[in-house]
Amino acid sequence: MVIPSGVVVLTDRGLAARPLVEVVAAAVRGGAAWVILREKDLAYAARRALATALRAVVPPGRLVVAGPDPLGGDAVHLSRTDPVPPDAGIVGRSCHGEPRLSTEDYVTLSPIYPTVTKPGYGPALGPARAAELAGDVPWLALGGIDSPARVAECMAAGAAGVAVLGAVMRAADPESVTAALVAAAGVRA
Questions:
Q1: For 24, left (φ over 0), alpha (ψ -120 to 50), or beta?
Q2: Confidence check: pLDDT of 188 > 60
Q3: What whole-number distance in Å separates Cα of residue 118 and Cα of residue 71?
Q4: What pathway does the UniProt record associate with this protein (predicted)?
Q5: Residue 117 and residue 15: Cα distance in Å, rounded?
Q6: What phi-psi label fits residue 71: left (phi over 0), alpha (psi between -120 and 50 degrees) or beta?
Q7: What is the C-alpha radius of gyration for the chain, rounded to an integer number of angstroms?
Q8: What is the pLDDT of residues 48-67, one digit of tens each?
Q9: How far is the C-alpha of 17 from the C-alpha of 148, rounded, in Å?
Q10: Is the pTM value of this prediction over 0.70?
Q11: What φ, ψ does residue 39 adopt, rounded to 5°?
């Protein structure tokens, strides 16, 4: 099974410098191979329509939906307390401490660095502590991943990839920002 790796873009239409689907399409052109649809505040029909629109610009099978409803897709990313849906395919879970996988395939560990998107969220783990917490569990670094140097630090610590939100969503040129992060990751999944 292939799990999210390399540069994974998380959506936030409230932070997006342009319409969300345009930002995601640009990030994919820049090399992002996975996208996690958040937007949990949307009504079900609107969220499902957004998932459909994103599937048109994301590589097949590479759209992960945050929350226990895959919205017709094959991958979910769950909070600490979300139930695992039946037939979810790839399952990820957000962790802020030591991950313990049961039916999940990977975890995100956060925050790795202080983050502008969630000020005061922390304390920041740092890449080395995140790697220690993860042990043998495949993990994505999340939080404050806003530069190629930080991407390289996380990958050197053993992350399967980095999950990026603000750096891509806020970018005037999300394609070039993503391309620089992908180059630093050294992985194109």
A1: alpha
A2: no
A3: 26
A4: Cofactor biosynthesis; thiamine diphosphate biosynthesis
A5: 9
A6: left
A7: 15
A8: 999 999 999 999 999 999 99
A9: 20
A10: yes
A11: 50, 40
Round the average pLDDT of the chain to a whole number and report it: 92
Tell which residue, 63, 104, 64, has the closest CA to residue 80.
104
Domains of the chain: residue spans and CATH? 6-185 (3.20.20.70)
pLDDT in tens, 77-123: 999 889 988 878 899 999 877 677 778 899 999 999 987 776 666 68
Residue 184 neighbours by CB under 8 Å, 6+ apart: 148, 149, 151, 152, 155
The residue length of the chain stands at 189
Q: How far, in Å, are 64, 75, 97, 126 from residue 90 at the CA level? A: 8, 5, 21, 26
pLDDT, one tens digit per residue, over 112-168 is 998 777 666 668 999 999 999 998 999 999 999 999 999 999 999 999 999 999 999
Measured distance CA(109)–CA(93) in Å, rounded: 9
What is the C-alpha separation between 75 and 98, in angstroms, rounded? 22
Residue 102 is predicted with a pLDDT of: 78
Count the alpha carbons within 13 Å of 21 in the hemisphere toward its beta carbon: 10
User: What is the model's pLDDT at position 97?
Assistant: 73
